[in-house]
């Protein structure tokens, strides 16, 4: 597939996710569902995409690096930032930037994988577009839920940068030395993001469900299932070339 078509489609898909989230949460009562959907998407991305990708690639030490990322984020939250993500009440208010960087690392890795595939087939093309839409949407919600003071123009700038990462890497991957260290960064980022999701977003979804919004659990499940389905559409996505 032509590189221009591939990168243009990924950018458009990412922008769709970025602008879809604010449009949906304007509707009263939808924000809890948007957060639940985002939590399901992010958890599924980590478990079905990032972890399988980083485990064999990080020299057989992927599991240890993921654990280090998880513990590192936990210590950062509890001991440095003094933020308690427990119980979904006042959760992970300073986790936005580390989580954002973790997802950027994942996007860089996606760009490296795509650039290494001689011909991107249609299933992988559509899977990547779907993946970018849901990931961008989920990241918008993650930043809204976990970032202290990141609003307006700064929020939009962060998201536009995230959208541009994968296409940029596809074009410049031949000029960079990213391939060697990226699996370790992705694995550590996966562990950090897993802590934010399980320590912050998922308890918040549970708290809202216990408060009478039972349907948010279904929304969480739908987000996870859609993401797993998208991953299954790209059977070659986890193969390095």
Which descriptors would you attach to this protein?
241 residues; mainly alpha
SSE arrangement, N to C: HHHHHHHH
Given the C-alpha coordinates, what overall shape results?
globular
| Cα gyration radius (Å) | 17 Å
Strand runs, count: 0
Number of individual domains:
1
Low-confidence stretches: 85-92, 235-241
The portion of residues forming beta strands comes to under 5%
Helix content: over 70%
| Helical run tally | 8
Main pleated sheet: none
Q: What is the average per-residue confidence, as pLDDT, rounded to a whole number? A: 77
Polypeptide structure, described:
This protein has 241 residues and is mostly helical. The chain has one domain. It is built from eight helices and no strands. Helix 3 packs across helix 7 and helix 5 (122-146) packs antiparallel against helix 8. The chain starts with a helix and ends in a 9-residue tail after the last helix. 48% of the residues are buried. Mean pLDDT is 77; it is low at 85-92 and 235-241.
Gist?
This protein is mostly helical and 241 residues long. The chain has helices spanning 3-25, 31-57, 62-80, 96-116, 122-146, 152-172, 178-210, 215-232.
Give the secondary structure arrangement, pairings included.
Blueprint: H1 3-25, H2 31-57, H3 62-80, H4 96-116, H5 122-146, H6 152-172, H7 178-210, H8 215-232
Helix pairs in contact: 1-5, 1-6, 2-5, 2-7, 2-8, 3-7, 4-5, 4-6, 4-7, 5-6, 5-8, 7-8
């Amino acid at each position: 597939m032509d590189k221009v078509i591939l990168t243009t489609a990924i950018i458009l898909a990412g922008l769709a996710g970025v602008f879809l989230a604010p449009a949906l949460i304007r509707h009263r009562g939808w924000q809890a569902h948007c957060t639940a959907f985002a939590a399901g998407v992010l958890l599924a991305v980590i478990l079905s995409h990032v972890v399988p990708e980083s485990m064999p690639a990080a020299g057989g030490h992927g599991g240890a690096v993921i654990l280090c990322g998880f513990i590192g984020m936990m210590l950062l939250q509890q001991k440095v930032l003094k933020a308690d993500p427990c119980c979904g009440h006042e959760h992970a208010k300073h986790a936005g930037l580390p989580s954002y960087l973790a997802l950027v690392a994942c996007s860089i890795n996606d760009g490296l994988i795509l650039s290494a595939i001689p011909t991107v087939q249609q299933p992988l093309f559509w899977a990547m577009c779907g993946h970018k839409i849901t990931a961008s949407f989920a990241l918008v919600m993650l930043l809204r839920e976990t970032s202290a003071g990141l609003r307006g123009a700064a929020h939009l700038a962060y998201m536009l940068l995230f959208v541009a990462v994968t296409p940029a890497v596809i074009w410049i991957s031949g000029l960079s030395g990213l391939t060697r260290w990226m699996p370790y960064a992705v694995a550590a980022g996966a562990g950090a993001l897993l802590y934010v999701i399980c320590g912050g977003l998922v308890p918040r979804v549970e708290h809202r469900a216990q408060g009478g919004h039972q349907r948010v659990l279904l929304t969480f499940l739908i987000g996870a299932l859609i993401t797993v389905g998208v991953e299954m559409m790209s059977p070659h996505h986890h193969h390095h070339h």
